[in-house]
Amino acid sequence: MILEARADIEVVGEAADGAAAVELAGRLRPDVILMDVRMPHLDGVEATRRIVDAGGSARIIILTTYDVDEYVFAALRAGASGFLLKDVRPADMVDAVRIVARGEALLAPTVTRRLLDHFLDTLPERPVRPPDLAALSEREVQVLRLVALALSNAEIAARLVLTEATVKSHVSAVLRKLGLRDRVQAVVCAYDAGLVRPRPRT
């Protein structure tokens, strides 16, 4: 109801569980999917993984009860573009759909840092093959590392003495060369490659 009330958004389908979401995503080819984490038959994490692995172009927003939740990180690694809390204000939900539809990641830098610090060194994930960064220039590797440290484009520009436009160009090149969907996936990639590590727990 919230989304259908907006003239620029069309709700093309609804699914009662993860299996139905995968089937509908393949058939309806939506631009954005709001995916609940906990669903019967197939949870939102596995549904996200299957949609992404099938080559789906939909941007997936995870809906969760808690922002620091093992399912959230697993979903981001599976290919989600960000997450929203279930008590999100209606206007913020609409904005979130528009943001990811533009290809941007829906994850504030502070949340990125907290999630990765909390989970990357503790979650029993399936083995991840480190990505090959050979295609990146030295500058692009620097930018990728700073993206993973949750710096904004403006902060990266200040750190490297570049313009924001140049940083944005480097980020786009990194995504393109590594075949990544968005900034969230770049953060996960940088950690998998060992460019940065979670801070030790205190």
Written as H for each helix and E for each strand, in order along the chain, the element string is: HEHEHEHHHHHH
Annotated CATH architecture of the largest domain: 3-Layer(aba) Sandwich
CA radius of gyration: 17 Å
Poorly predicted spans: none
Distance between the termini: 45 Å
Largest sheet: 3 strands, parallel
Instruction: State which percent range the strand residues make up.
Output: 5-15%
Classify the helix fraction into a percent range: 40-55%
Strand order of the largest sheet: 1-2-3
As for the number of domains, it is: 2
Overall morphology: globular
Q: What's the number of helices?
A: 9
* Secondary structure tally: strands: 3
**Which CATH first-tier class of the largest domain would you pick?**
Alpha Beta
CATH level 3 topology of the largest domain = Rossmann fold
Structural class: mainly alpha
- What's the average pLDDT? 83
CATH superfamily of the largest domain: Response regulator
Keywords: DNA-binding, Phosphoprotein, Transcription, Transcription regulation
Protein name: Response regulator transcription factor
Domain Response regulatory: 1-101
Domain HTH luxR-type: 129-194
